[in-house]
Amino acid sequence: MEPMPEIHTAPVEETITQPVTDDGDHDRFAHYVRKADAARAAVEGVPVRAICGKVWVPSRDPKKYPVCPECEKIRNQLLNRSNN
Ligand SMILES: [Zn+2]
Predict the structure, then answer these.
(1) What pLDDT, in 10s, does the model give residues 54-70?
(2) How far apart are CA 55 and CA 73, in angstroms?
(3) d(CA 84, CA 71)
């Protein structure tokens, strides 16, 4: 397995992307994933890892689902850090 890049070393503009719907659990949330991961998943059908750590294969566009609270928290932390 190839190692996943560390979240805190990635530029925010590369980290913050459109939410991707989690279609695997009973609780459905839109998670934030890296653009590169989302693009790769779309092309290769490989799983993506959200910034909260969740891994799944995205199969639908995010629509009515709430944003994952953990992703939202991490996203805000990253944004605050970048604005310093
Ligand atoms: Zn999440």
Answers:
(1) 888 876 565 677 888 99
(2) 18
(3) 20
